[in-house]
Write a structure and sequence with these properties.
alpha/beta, five-stranded parallel β-sheet
Length: about 130
């Protein structure tokens, strides 16, 4: 069964880039620009992973984290925060990984892969197979 990643990012170009990158990991990608839509999508789709910006229109990414962690069906979904904020600015919130923008693509892909496919070796897209 294919894994599903939910991207919540207000910037359309960043959202598309993330969707393209995560698609390289052979997972289904759903995406939105607001935390409220993301919460609705998470409830409906039960994604295997969430990639989340913090500064969003309406509900913030930090409030989104609190809502997700409070829901039994979603509380164990890994959340990867990608933001321009400093790590100290989001201290005390229950996310699994933190990336400050700009992000290293390889580090992000390795981290997403580790959460989606634990125990399975990571191969960079386009890397030769033995």
């Amino acid at each position: 069964m294919r894994k599903t990643a939910l991207i919540i990012e207000n910037d359309a170009l960043s959202r598309k880039l993330l969707a393209d990158l995560l698609g390289m990991l052979e997972c289904d990608v759903v995406q939105t620009r607001t935390a409220q839509d993301g919460l609705d999508m998470a409830r409906a789709r039960k994604p295997d992973l969430i990639v989340l910006d913090i500064k969003l229109q309406g509900m913030s990414g930090l409030d989104f984290i609190d809502y997700v962690r409070a829901e039994q069906a979603l509380r164990d979904v890994p959340i990867i925060v990608m933001t321009a904020y400093e790590r100290n600015d989001v201290a005390g919130y229950d996310f699994d990984e933190f990336f400050q923008k700009p992000v290293s693509v390889d580090s992000l892909l390795r981290t997403v892969h580790r959460h989606l496919y634990p125990g399975r070796p990571y191969r960079r897209a386009g890397a030769a197979r033995n």
